[in-house]
Every structure is written in structure tokens, then in C-alpha cells.
Fold these 2 entries.
Entry 1:
Amino acid sequence: MKRVLVTGGSGFIGRQVWNPLHTRGFEIHATGRHPLADDPPGVVFHPGDLIDCASHRALLERVKPDHLLHLAW
């Protein structure tokens, strides 16, 4: 399975890519500053801030994504 990390995953654009990625067979990991109100099927959410380099380095080591979709502003 292909694994993707979506930055800005809790934002408007980030949420729009979940379904297309899921239907194409991706394992979806998303990160964002704001927690999700719902628990979207097929998405593993990791709260965080891109400014915190150490936590995102650790996230990359845990998730080991094949692809990165950078949608954070």
C-alpha cells in the first residue's frame, strides 16, 4: 500500500484530498495544528505544527511516507 502524509490535513483543502487518495489505495496520514471534530475513515491524524521541527522529524520516522502532499500554509 502507498503511504501519504498530508500536511495541512485539518484545513479546507487538506480535507478535500482524503477521499480521492483513499479511493486510489493510499494509506493516509494527515497532520495539522487544529484537531479534527470528526474521525474520518481511513485517515490517521497526527496533531502538530510544522514549526516544531523535532516533532515532525519524529513523525516522518514513525509514518515513513512514500509521498508527501504539502498543503500547509
Note: The two ends are 28 Å apart (CA to CA).
Entry 2:
Amino acid sequence: MQNYQVVWPEAGIATIEPCETPAPGPGQLLIRTRATLISPGTERAFFLGLPNTTQRFPQSPGYNNVGEVAALGEGVTDWQVGERIATPTRHAAYVLAHATDGVRIPAGLPDERAAFFELGAIALQGVHKARIELGEAVVVIGAGLIGLLAMQLAKLQGAAPVITVDQDEQRLDFAHQAGADAVLMADSHLSAELSRLCGDQGPAVVIEATGHPAAIPTAFDLAGWCGRVILLGSTRGETEQVNFYRDVHKKGLTVIGAHNSARPAHDSRPGWWTRLADQQTAMKLLALDRLVIHPLITHRFTWQQAPQAYALLKQWNKDALGLVLSWTP
């Protein structure tokens, strides 16, 4: 069983390299990969060594893996060889995962859709932390994959209206296809358009999903009085010139950091779910077709074409959202 993996030997360079096929240890699974999804925001940031990343190379990237169980480690009794499984593991033909970290893939759910389980879970933890109530207006800044998933999840939570804001018309078109109640260009007319859609009170929740430092003051500005601002995007750099008295304190805003690592280790509770619980819920929503995924998959590559996929990502082509790598013959 020859194994291959995606490697970044240095910033901005992606290669395919042979590697050892590991043997599963106690409690582990060996997984034969069927498809992986490139995370365009986080992987691009680490690929290019942007601020607030490790900036260490070489790296073996990836955390959206769909495959089938190839071998069981000692003591594993709740999985069988041949079962399809989703794990937050790397882009490689064979990967190891602990048996308790896997999510079963429902019958009939295509591999490339199932590969959105982890990004769905990341978006879901931000929406949980927002504690959205039925009928509250929600604005999502950013129409990348995380923003588009968060927009749909906010809508499922009962937000009304749900509005996507972006600077790019193509990205706003993706949001329209994914079911946003309204899409708005981030320009000089934005505040007036939001008042028309949300009323003078403004949105109850603003989800910042771009990761751009300059977007955070915009999120504070757009949020309504006593609103909640959810920092879902991993900010790559420092935000300057925030007047917290004017922008946060006087408006009574609640600012919530929603990084994927900020989770309970074991037991879920309202608004505060474990990673596995969110992954399982995202998979359930994908299987029930509650999340619009088809227009978000913009490019498909074989695993041998992974360097081409990362070259496209490096260009920051706004037409590129979901980049799926196929690892099947």
C-alpha cells in the first residue's frame, strides 16, 4: 500500500511526496482516503505563512478527510473495515485517526459533500455561541466557505433576515445561490441598506467570517445596540484604531471569540458544544440536504493535481471556493 501526501516544503510551494503507510496502534484506525477538501481560508494563510500562523515548514496540511476504514487497531470494536468515515486529518492516501474521532457517513451522501463536515462544524460552533433567537436579524461579513456555511446555519437557527456582506460580486452571487435573504456590497451605501432591511435598531448579530483585521471595526459599526459580534474568521494580523468606548462600550456590544479550539473537552451544553457533537450535527445536516453545497464546490482535482490546486489558492482567485481532491482511482 504505497502512501502519498501533500507537503508544503516552503511557503507558497506544494508538492506530492511518498511517505510511509502507518500501522494502526491501539484504539486507532487506518483510513484509505477517498476525498479531501482544501480549506481555502486557513490553509491559504498557513501555506503563505501569513500573520498568526506557525510559519514553520515543511508542513503536511489538511483537516477535511473522507475515507473508508482499511484496518483496525487493537481494541477497536465500534468500526468495521470498509465503513466510510470522516476525520479531521491531512491530505494523504492513507491516514491514521483515533477511533473515537471518526464520524460515520450516512449512506447516499456523496464523498465530496461529506468532506464539508469539519468546515460545517467550525461554522456551527460560531452560530451556537451567537445564541441566535427566532426572528433576529443576522449579518455575515464574508462570503467564503465559512461565511456561507455560517449564513445557512444562522438561517436554520431561525434568523430573519440573514444578510451576507462582501466586497466581491462573484462571492455575493455564491451567497445568493446558497440562500441568503439579501446580499449587500460593502460600500458607502451599506449602512442605509441595512437600515432598510433591519430597521433602525440594526442587526442583533454580526458574524465576522473574513479573518481580515480591517473587517472588525466594520462588524462593530454594523451591529445594532446591545448586539453580539462573533469573531468567527481567524484574524491574520492586528486591528488598529478601534475606539472601544465608542465602538463597543457605549453600544453595549458583546464580542465573542469563536475559534474552533475554544470548545468544551467532553460534555456539550447550550451554546457550547464539543467538536465531535458539532461534526456529527454538520454531517446530519449534510445528509438531510439542509445545507446548500453544490454551488460551493467550484473545482475538482485528482490528488496528483494538488500542486495546481494550491497554485490557484495562492492567486486568491475569487471564483475558487470549494477545492476537492479525489483520492480514488
Note: The mean pLDDT is 96.
